[in-house]
Amino acid sequence: MNLDKSIEYLKGVGPVRADTLKKEAGIFVYDDLLNYFPFRYVDKSKVNKVYEVNNDAVYYQLKGRIVSFTEVGEKNKKRLVAQFEDDSGRLELVWFKGYKYILPALVCGNEYFVFGKPTYFNGRFNFTHPEVEAVANREIISRSPLQGIYSSGEKLAAKGL
113-125: per-residue pLDDT in tens? Predict the structure, then answer.
């Protein structure tokens, strides 16, 4: 196999995805892809309750449902705020950037896994730009609890790359 071959010739990539990989991740050829390693790993085997969130230096994974979401602010100061709850409490999920990609995937009442690092703001914890995955999707796709974290732009994540 020629490792210097352009990434666009890899099955399932094509010119449009290749352009995104080149711009966002610096992946130009097969060899770049083979040497694109995570910068850290996170263990998602533990699921916490909302009431357990008490430290903004630790990553948490929660399982619960989104009960409402609203777009707040105007023009370039707009953000998406979702109310997330489990049987132990409620907190906010907030997206300042890229929320237009997130919004279509959120359905009130559906269950989600939320993963992220909380921030303490206005006397309570919230999650800013958390990872959100539908519970139904995780049950369909068997995943390892140890997951690699790659440095990538929002465009890669939004396109599922």
Answer: 999 999 998 889 9
Nearest to 64 by CA among 135, 157, 156: 135
> Can you tell me the distance from the alpha carbon of 33 to that of 3, in angstroms, rounded to the nearest whole number?
9
Longest dimension (CA), the chain: 57
> Closest Cα partner for 27 from 39, 37, 15, 36?
36
Closest CA to 65 of 31, 44, 91, 26: 91
Tell me if the pTM is above 0.90: no
Whether the Cβ atoms of residue 21 and residue 152 lie closer than 8 Å to each other: no
Give the model's confidence band at 42: pLDDT under 50 very low, under 70 low, under 90 confident, else very high.
Answer: confident
